[in-house]
Amino acid sequence: IDQNFPEGMPRKITISGATHALEAARALVNEVITGAPAAMGAASMMGMMGGMMGGPGGEMMGGYPGGAVAGPQVERIVDCPQSVVGRVIGRGGETIKDLQMRSGCRIQIDQNFPEGHPRKITITGTAAQVEQGAVMVDQKINDNGPSAVVPGSAANTIDCPKSVVGRVIGRGGETINDLQARSGARIQIDQNVPEGAPCKISITGSAQAVEAGSKMVNDVIHAGPGMGGGGMGGGGGMSGGGGMSGGGGMSG
Predict the structure, then answer these.
(1) Cys bridge to 110: 17, 62, 65, 120, which one at CB 3.0-4.6 A?
(2) What is the pLDDT of residue 85?
(3) What angle do CA 166, 73, 46 make, to 5 degrees?
(4) Is the pTM of this model over 0.85?
């Protein structure tokens, strides 16, 4: 149970464990909250919650945007520097709620770590939701603001049909990371566009990097991944925390 919220704001109760245990625990918690007959007292409930969470409640924030999600659940943990954790949470939790709503997954931030140590962001949902959520969180962690294009650099924007944007991102951001590593450009995808409108892919960096990145992105859009030429690279970009930036409406 996370009670690290302003006076008057609801507290967050996180329940984890086997599927059958989750259902039972959820029912018991709701009974206690609503005042309906419960099978155990509040003290016992707290003990059960502590055991299910692996100990006393740390500073956890987040939850499923609309209750539990269907399908097999997977989990991914992302390290977040303490200095930028507020950027992921947002004012009054606004940003983390938006990330959850757009990705469909649960995003929790554990800040129960010593000063200077990275915080742990746990992303839970279906495989597709977790991949999407991880890319969004990565972008937010590495968000340098609107002035990411420095003097002497170039920029280009490419329209990408929504139906193929997943091809540019790749599994867990693998393709877009590779494109960035090989081109040397920063590549961002804005999916926050009206229905039927193409997504916007922003490519920034040196003139040479932008030219190479633009060609690679167009090749992937029209022909699939691995068609951008050059040797294969790895890491960097969004998943590696290599200087990516993104606004509130940016996603991968």
Answers:
(1) 120
(2) 86
(3) 135
(4) no
Contact in structure between 244 and 189 (CB atoms under 8 Å): no
What single DSSP character describes residue 173? G
34-79: pLDDT as tens digits: 765 444 444 444 444 443 333 333 445 555 554 444 568 899 998 8
| Contact (Cβ atoms closer than 8 angstroms) between residue 175 and residue 224 | no
Give the CA distances from residue 34 to residues 3, 16, 22, 113, 214, in Å, rounded to whole numbers and listed in that order.
18, 21, 18, 33, 56
8 CB-near residues (< 8 Å, 6+ apart) = none
Q: Give the whole-angstrom CA distance, residue 239 versus residue 252.
A: 11
Whether 241 and 80 have beta carbons less than 8 Å apart is answered as no
Number of alpha helices (DSSP H) and beta strands (DSSP E) in the chain: 8, 7
CB-based contact 138:130 (threshold 8 Å):
no
Rounded CA-CA distance 49/53 in Å is 6
- Walk across the sheet containing 74-80 and list its strands: 60-61, 106-110, 119-125, 74-80
What confidence category does residue 241 fall into, taking pLDDT thresholds of 50, 70 and 90? Answer: very low
Q: What is the mean pLDDT of residues 220-244?
A: 46
For residue 94, give the nearest of 83, 113, 75, 107 by alpha carbon.
107
> What type of residue sits at position 200?
K
Mean pLDDT of the chain: 73
What does each C-alpha distance from 97 to 46, 112, 150, 195, 225 come to in angstroms? 26, 20, 31, 21, 32
